Amino acid sequence: MDLLTALFDFKAMGIEVATGAMFVTLFLLLITGMPLAFVTLLVALIFALGWFGPMAVPLITSRIFSFVNSFVFVSVPMFVLMAAILDRSGIARDLFDAMRVVGGRLRGGIAIQTLLVAVVLAAMSGIIGGEVVLLGLLALPQMLRLGYDRRLAIGVCCAGGALGTMVPPSIVLIIYGLTASVSIGDLFTASFLPGLMLASFYIIYVLVRAYMNPDIAPIPEPDETSTAEKMRLLKGLILPIMVVIFVLGSIYGGIASVTEASAIGVIGVTLSTMMRGEFTTELMVGAAKRTLATVGMIVWIGIGASALVGVFNLMGGITFVSNLITGVSDNPTVIVLFMMAILFVLGMFLDWVGIALLTMPIFVPIIRDLGLDPVWFGVVFAMNMQVSFLSPPFGPAAFYLKSVTPPDISLGEIFRSLLPFIALQILALAILIAFPGVTGR
Amino acid sequence: MQDRTDPNVAASAPVDIDAPKGAIPEAGLLGRGIDRIGILFAFAILASAAILGIEVVLRYVFDAPTIWAHETVIFLNATAFVYGGLYVVSRDAHIRVVLIYDYLSAPWRRIFNVVISLVCLVATAFFGWAAWQSLVRAVWTPTGAIRLESSGSAWDPPTPGMLKIFLFTILVVMAVQFAVLAWNYMTKQDR
C-alpha cells in the first residue's frame, strides 16, 4: 500500500506541474475522439485519487448531485422541448411566409425577411441546431432561386440561425447563470439589446451589400399571395407569438420563475400545435426523445466538467490559474481581452457547454475581483460563443446547414461565406466590451 | 466539435429535424433496449412540463401551491438527465473532438473505436465505484439499518436516496454498454 501511495502521490508534483499534467492529459485524450464527458470524468477521478486519495471521491459525487438536483436547471429541458416541438410544427414556415410583407420590394428583402424570422425564432428557442436547419430548408432555396449571391444567402441562414443562443431565452445564458450564480432573469434582460444589435448589424450588412452591388440581391416578382392567404397565416401565428410574449414577459416582469415560464412555454407551444391541427402523439414523443438526447449530452458534459473543476479547485488549481491570468496585466480590459482570446481558441474545438462549465468557474471570480459586472460578462460570453458556432473547423452552425443544403455547396464554401458574419460578431463583441452600457446596466 | 450523427440523419429525414435514428448497430441488443426504455424518460420530461403547468395554475390562480410539485419535477428531470447520458451512449452521440478521428482510415478507426470504448468503460466503472460510496451512505444508517436518505423539506420524500441508487444502476448498465460496444467494434467487420 505504501508503494502504491508513493506511486500515485501527485502532490509531490506541486500545483504547477499538476496543472500542466492535467491539461496535457485532457488534450491528449480529447484529440483521440473520446467523448468529452468521459474524458473530464476520468481525469477528475484520477487526480482526485492521486492528489487526495479515496477520501475525496464522495466530495466529487456530492457536487454532481447538487448539479443534477437544481430546480433552475429544469428550465433547460423545458426550453429544449419547446424548441423541438416548434421545429416539428409548421409555425416557422408560416412565420416565414407571413414575414414576406416586411421584405416586400426592398433590395435584399428576402435576406432581411430571413433575419427577422430568425430573431423571432430565437425568441422562441434557446438552441441553434433546429433554427439553422429550418432556415436552410425554408429561406436558402428561395434566395438561391431568385439569384441571390450564394455566400450572402448561406451566411444569412447560418448567422441568423445561431442567434437562438443570443436572444433570450438562451440555454447558454442559463448554464452561465448556474455556474456563475447570477440571476437568469437579469441575464436575459441584459442580453436583449446586444442580441438585437447583432441582428441589426447583419441587416445593415445585407442592405449595404445589396445597394452597393444590386446583382447580388435581385428584387423578387410582385407578391401574389392573396389577402385571404395572409389572414390565414396570421391567424395561425397569433398564439405562438403570444406564447413568446407571455414567456419572456413573465421572466422580465419577475412574475414567474424561469423554470415555470419555460414550462408555460412548452404548454403554450403544444396548444398552438393543437389549434393548428398539427398535434400528433408522434410529434410529442419525437420532440421529447430529442430533448432526452440533447439534455443527456449537455448534463453529462456538465457532470464531467463539474467533477473536474471540483477536484481542480480542491487542489488549489483555480487559485493558481487565477493568479496566472490576473498576472497578465494590471488593466482589467487587457485581462478581459486575454480571456476572450482563450475563449476564441477553445471555441474552435470545444462545444460551448464544455467551455462554459470548464472556464467560467475560473473566469467569473476574477471578473468579480476586478469589480466588473458578472451579468455583463455573461452577455459577453454568449456573444463570444456566437463566434464559436460559426468559426471553422468545427462551427456547428455550418454543419447543421450542410446537412440540408444541395451537395454542390461544400463545407468549405459555407465557412468562407461565414467570414464577414464572424467579423460582424467580433465587432459586436468589441462594442459590448468597450461600452458595457449596451446591456442596459 | 459537433455531434457527429446529427447532420447526416437530418439530411436523410428533414421532417424529423436532427433527431438521431436510435441506437447504433454496434450497441447490440442492450442498445436497442436502452433506446426503447428511453421513451419512459421522454415521458418524464413531458410529465414535468404538465406538473409545472398545474403548479403555476394552483399558485398564481388559486394561491394554493403544492408542496410536492417542485421536488417531483426535480426528481423526474434528474432521472431523465442521468438516463439521457446512457441513451446518448447507445446512440454514439456524445460530443467529441473529431479533429484526428475523421481522417483515420477504416482499420485505424476501428482500433480507436475499441480503445475509446474501453477507456470510457474504465471511466464509467471508476465513477460507478464513486457512486457506490455515496449510495452506501444514502441507503444504510451507520448501524446497518436500511433508511433511504430524504430531502429534508416539508414533504421530505426519499428522492435523494432513490436518485443515488438510480445513478449507480445506470453507471453499471453504461459500463456494460461500453463493453458491448468495444466487443462489437472489435468483432464486426465493417460499420
Automatic annotation (TrEMBL), chain B:
Membrane topology term: Multi-pass membrane protein
Annotated TM spans: 39-62, 68-90, 111-132, 165-186
Keyword Metal-binding tagged: no
Compartmental location: Cell inner membrane
GO molecular function, one term: transmembrane transporter activity
Residues of the Tripartite ATP-independent periplasmic transporters DctQ component domain: 50-183
UniProt keyword terms in alphabetical order: Cell inner membrane, Cell membrane, Membrane, Transmembrane, Transmembrane helix, Transport
GO cellular component assignments: plasma membrane
One Pfam family from the record: DctQ
Job of this protein: Part of the tripartite ATP-independent periplasmic (TRAP) transport system.
Subunit annotation: The complex comprises the extracytoplasmic solute receptor protein and the two transmembrane proteins.
Family recorded in the similarity comment: Belongs to the TRAP transporter small permease family.
PANTHER family, per the entry: 2,3-DIKETO-L-GULONATE TRAP TRANSPORTER SMALL PERMEASE PROTEIN YIAM
Name of the protein in question: TRAP transporter small permease protein
